[in-house]
């Protein structure tokens, strides 16, 4: 039986349903900051109050010592910003200003939160009655959990709200939220157990949350990984900072409007693990200003598409034994436009492509078409995953076709179950370690570089695993149409390649 790894706590869904009802005519893109800011404020206030009570009982003179809170990664919350004060003021017509003042006071006393918290609750567009009802609603988040579990409870509520707002916003929601089952697949593949984890387009921080979960689930400690992230959208950067803070995750997350290509915040960083879901097929990335950039080791990316700029930026930041997982549009596996085919060929021949995974459609909020996962390795000749030695994988690439996996959670969206994720990640681990891996027709294939060359350096898994024809009657039309569209694009690309070869040969004949 499939396990839904997104199963809510119960109160999460009820809270969101009630909060969404209070939204009225507000756009989800505006309303999410109102709600998430209050959830964050409630969380840090609860954490502070719990620590304060503990100190009063055991060490009263330390109750007003800020260092006592800092030592436990707990924010100092001044009296006027504590949840009890807000809840007592919830019915006042000035509640918007009271919330803004609370946010300002928290930022003033906690420099790491400067510029992070929303502070526009007093604007006329927000109803004081709605804000009061929202405070009462968020007060219903029960904190009667075992000691140390409050953080996870609020973190899960925060994440659930992020997911639901992403669904409400559709395409725009995909810009800040990568579906949890996709992130979990990438994390389980790479196993970021210890070391530096980096995301150059980190959105709301889901990659980092799942990485920390992996560490804890396998007996490690928060702090075993050092987290680095960059984001060019300021409001998304704020969501990320709050998402990590509500979980007590310490991270170096930086923002600038120019983005990772033009103002790399970590120019000397060499990460052990990189997980990224860059925006797909970005055409206005300013590539014409970076023609001679040293990051383009495998070829200058085309000005009209940033896909191979992202891949090479990520490779540039990998440590000598680093590995990366990247979500990209399917076209990146087969496109030959504007030199992309040559860059892909150089990466394959340069032995940095480790594994390719074809994903089913409808996994993402931002697009209905299928996408793929690239897994890169700086050195395929060796390495260690957790405590296991990896075999020499040079001359091979693993292809996994996961298009038949997953289950529909509603009319438009699919998710992977824990069993699906284990099937994908387990296949990769067995292949990397050389222990019990076997090709499975229709699902996975360890292909030689010679086979990849024979396919014109196209990396579409279906070409290698021998996918069986899907029964059209069993496949939802949008998914079937998206698959056919992707296959057609591959055929167009191959036709363009063959046309080029024929023209070259004809030119050669005429030259004689």
From TrEMBL:
Residues 11-133 form the N6 adenine-specific DNA methyltransferase N-terminal domain. It comes from the Bacteria. The keyword GTP-binding does not apply. It holds the Pfam family N6_Mtase. Coiled coil: none annotated. GO terms for molecular function: DNA binding; N-methyltransferase activity; site-specific DNA-methyltransferase (adenine-specific) activity. Residues 150-473 form the DNA methylase adenine-specific domain. The keyword ATP-binding does not apply. Keywords: Methyltransferase, Restriction system, S-adenosyl-L-methionine, Transferase. GO terms for biological process: DNA restriction-modification system; methylation. It catalyses: a 2'-deoxyadenosine in DNA + S-adenosyl-L-methionine = an N(6)-methyl-2'-deoxyadenosine in DNA + S-adenosyl-L-homocysteine + H(+). Its EC number is 2.1.1.72. InterPro entries: D12N6_MeTrfase_N (IPR022749), DNA_methylase_A-5 (IPR003356), DNA_methylase_N6_adenine_CS (IPR002052), SAM-dependent_MTases_sf (IPR029063), T1MK-like_N_sf (IPR038333), Type-I_RE_MTase_Subunit (IPR052916). PANTHER family: TYPE I RESTRICTION ENZYME HINDI METHYLASE SUBUNIT, TYPE I RESTRICTION ENZYME HINDVIIP M PROTEIN-RELATED. Belongs to the N(4)/N(6)-methyltransferase family. This is site-specific DNA-methyltransferase (adenine-specific).
């Amino acid at each position: 039986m499939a396990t839904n790894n997104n199963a809510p706590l119960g109160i999460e869904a009820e809270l969101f349903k009630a909060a969404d009802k209070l939204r009225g005519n507000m756009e989800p893109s505006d309303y999410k900051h109102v709600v998430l800011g209050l959830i964050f404020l409630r969380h840090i206030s609860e954490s502070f109050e719990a620590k304060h009570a503990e100190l009063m009982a055991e060490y009263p003179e330390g109750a007003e010592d800020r260092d006592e809170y800092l030592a436990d990664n707990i924010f100092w919350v001044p009296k006027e910003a504590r949840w009890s004060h807000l809840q007592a003021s919830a019915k006042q017509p000035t509640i918007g200003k009271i919330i803004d003042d609370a946010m300002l006071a928290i930022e003033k006393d906690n420099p790491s939160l400067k510029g992070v918290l929303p502070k526009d609750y007093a604007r006329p567009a927000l109803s004081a009655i709605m804000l009061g009802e929202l405070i009462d609603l968020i007060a219903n988040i029960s904190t009667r959990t075992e000691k140390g579990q409050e953080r996870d409870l609020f973190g899960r509520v925060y994440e659930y709200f992020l997911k639901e707002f992403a669904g409400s916003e559709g395409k725009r929601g995909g810009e800040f939220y990568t579906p949890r089952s996709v992130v979990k697949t990438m994390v389980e593949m790479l196993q970021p157990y210890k070391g530096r984890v980096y995301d150059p387009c980190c959105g709301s921080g889901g990659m980092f949350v799942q990485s920390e979960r992996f560490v804890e689930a396998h007996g490690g400690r928060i702090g075993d990984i050092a987290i680095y992230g960059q984001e060019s959208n300021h409001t998304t950067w704020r969501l990320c900072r709050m998402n990590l803070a509500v979980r007590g995750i310490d991270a170096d997350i930086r923002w600038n409007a120019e983005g990772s290509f033009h103002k790399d915040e970590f120019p000397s960083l060499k990460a052990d693990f990189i997980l990224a879901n860059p925006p797909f097929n970005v055409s206005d990335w300013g590539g014409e200003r970076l023609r001679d950039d040293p990051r383009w080791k495998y070829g200058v990316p085309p000005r009209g598409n940033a896909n191979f700029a992202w891949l090479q930026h990520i490779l540039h930041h990998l440590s000598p034994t680093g590995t990366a997982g990247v979500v990209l549009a399917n076209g990146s596996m087969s496109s030959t436009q504007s030199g992309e085919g040559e860059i892909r060929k150089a990466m394959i021949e340069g032995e940095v492509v480790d594994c390719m995974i074809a994903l089913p459609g409808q996994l993402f909020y931002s697009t209905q078409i299928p996408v793929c996962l690239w897994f890169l390795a700086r050195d395929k000749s060796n390495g260690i995953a957790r405590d296991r030695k990896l075999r020499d994988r040079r001359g091979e690439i693993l292809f996994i076709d996961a298009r038949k996996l997953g289950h529909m959670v509603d009319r438009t969206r699919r998710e992977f179950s824990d069993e699906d994720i284990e099937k994908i990640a387990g296949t990769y681990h067995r292949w990397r370690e050389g222990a019990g891996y076997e090709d499975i027709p229709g699902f996975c294939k360890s292909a030689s570089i010679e086979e990849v060359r024979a396919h014109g350096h196209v990396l579409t898994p279906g070409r290698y695993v021998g996918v069986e024809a899907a029964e059209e009657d069993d496949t939802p039309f949008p998914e079937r149409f998206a698959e056919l569209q992707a296959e057609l694009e591959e055929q167009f690309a191959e036709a363009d390649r063959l046309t080029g070869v024929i023209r070259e040969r004809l030119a050669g004949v005429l030259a004689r």
